[in-house]
Amino acid sequence: MKDSMIRGADIVVRSLIAENAEIIFGYPGGAIMPVYDALHDYHDEVRHVLTRHEQGAIHAAQGYARVSGKVGVCIATSGPGATNLITGLADAQIDSTPLVCITGQVASHLLGTDAFQETDVLGISMAATKWNIQVRRVEDIAPAIAKGFYIAKSGRPGAVLIDITKDAQTNFGEFNYSKCLGFRSYKTHIPVEKTAIQEAAFLINMAKRPYVLFGQGVVLGQAEAELKAFLDKSGIPAACTLLGSGSLSEDHPNYVGKLGMHGNYAPNMLTNQCDVLIAVGMRFDDRVTGDLKRYAKQAKVIHLELDPAEINKIVRCEVAVLGNCKDSLSLLTDAVKANAYPEWMAQFKELAEQERASVIDPDLTPTKPGLTMGEVIHQINKYKADDAILVTDVGQHQMIAWRYFNYKKPRTQVTSGGLGTMGFALPAALGAQMYDFSRQVVCVVGDGGIQMTIQELGTIMQTKAPVKIVLLNNNFLGMVRQWQQMFFDKRYSFTELDNPDFVKIAEAYNIQAQKVTERGNLQEAIEDMLIHDGPYFLEVVVEKEDNVFPMIATGCSVEEVRLS
Amino acid sequence: MKRYTIFVITENFIGILNRITIIFTRRGINIDALTASESRLEGIHRITIEVTASEDTVIQLVNQIEKIIDVIKAFHHEDENVVYQEIALYKIPVSRLDGGLEKIIRQHNAKIIAAEPDFVVLELTGHKEQTQELLEILKTYGLLEFARSGRVAVAKRMLTIDSFVK
Q1: Of A112, A272, A328, A483, which one is least surrounded by beta carbons within 10 A?
Q2: What pTM was computed for the model?
Q3: pLDDT digits (tens, 9 = 90+) for A398-411
Q4: Which residues on chain A place their C-beta less than 8 Å from a C-beta of chain B?
Q5: Per the UniProt entry, what are the Gene Ontology biological process annotations, in alphabetical order (chain A) (predicted)?
Q6: For domain B2-82+155-163, which architecture applies?
């Protein structure tokens, strides 16, 4: 053996360092132990965060990736370690989050024999990953990691899983790392077609009531400035999807609000009155469109999209502009006339006023005794930093926080959009905070979701990540309860929770905690939390049976959005 | 609903077939037949899938197949635009052989490719309609076993794999 040869496990770690991975979230176990042994030698170059569960590790990696724009990295062992990653893989894949997950696997001679902690991770993860591979030979480790990083972050980002057998980790090989720069079966750059831009500009220039819907493609394509420039010149009103939030400041004059089931009133209603619909980096999720048979039928649709498989998948478009919206938006900005639509814009404002009077004011400045989720977010807005990151879980609190949080900067929104994973917020907030301790990370979570990954308070304790956790406690699985109230005759089947003393739990983890039950104490508690140096846990007991409105019920059209 | 042939040109990568079939499974679409083989170029495989679906659905399937990292190209054709063949084997007991069967074999251009003491094996190559017609007839001759391949097909248009592999 040559002196230059190193263990496969060292190759794994040195490859990660070569990809500029600065932090790894993970959990050790038998089949990944050689890599953990190697990590011991490199702790000056790459940081490892030990979570309390593999699901926590992958959600933390997602939170880190979403805030940083870099590839999130997580490591787990074979068998249960790997299967615990599946929810996070599916979540990252559907929300286009770049991840590289490395799992240990039993030694190659044991593959297929039902060995201890053996599962067919390749098979199980196939439907939840952009790409996956099993590495059985030491010489294949570095090329697999190089390819994995390239695939995870290029094109439409996604989740990659690399399964490495234990013998590949312990065998010795040469380490010559070369980054992957592309390969023939995978095209990442789609040049924007000029004719598509011309056709799109023609439709836009003729339009009386054009309307822009923007999604996470703007964030992923780093096209925030291009979107703003396009809107500035074209004067077209624009609404965002859940994951598009933050890519345009909510103070922008063209910004008209949020789309979807619990989005704003005007943006949903007027989807069915525009004449040209310009979809930018969004995929017409069913939570955005409602009943497709009655969705924007009057409009000619222009779709700016990177992923060819999204074109005509849900909504048939008149003009497809393939490519990164950073490129297509700037070409389109040059091609459209400077314009303004005062009457059209006034329609948005009029409906927004209706929403303000019947939903927003009662939510933010309630007169009834019970605390609302909305007023909590309202108070957070008053004291938060402009670049504060909001991490939410899934359910009523998620929709309320999204509706009322004042987004001003890109990459300040971290939530589980496509998959709707309860338990996402706490570990994702940890991951977001690990990227930058100086940023405010506010984790808004419900009493149901927090209990799915509450063990990660331990990771917050150990890392001292100064996450501000705001638990909105209504002692219910609130969103399901709302549906039971509205669509199942108030038959509250298994949605009421007998909860533990959350403050005691937080304090047991050495995290400063406070509980608020009265409106009079809310403002001060939020101020205390946000100026506190270190992690903080604030439980706010809110009204038990509040509902989230506006709402487009399942099967309804966007114009059937209800205010109550 | 129409019958389509989907061609997939892929790298020879472990699990690629699984990744492709998952796309059909997710949408609850049945694959009528599937064949996989090496292509003219080393290291590149071609998979031919026969499916009955609407054109919209087929386009979406093809787009999603092409999105798979190790797929080089995927496209679809209606039956008129492909040249295709299937092969069928029929096992008939010797005890049922008679003059009528000889006529049938001649009429259908089938071949006897194996003769054992107890049975003979007939082979017919052609479109599914042809092999199906013979199947129906041979059922009355005590057919012991029947097997039919998926289609092997080439597109009629003058495009070669080389143009996709750069």
Answers
A1: A112
A2: 0.95
A3: 999 999 999 989 99
A4: 122-123, 126-127, 130-134, 151, 184-186, 307-309, 311-313
A5: isoleucine biosynthetic process; L-valine biosynthetic process
A6: 2-Layer Sandwich (3.30)
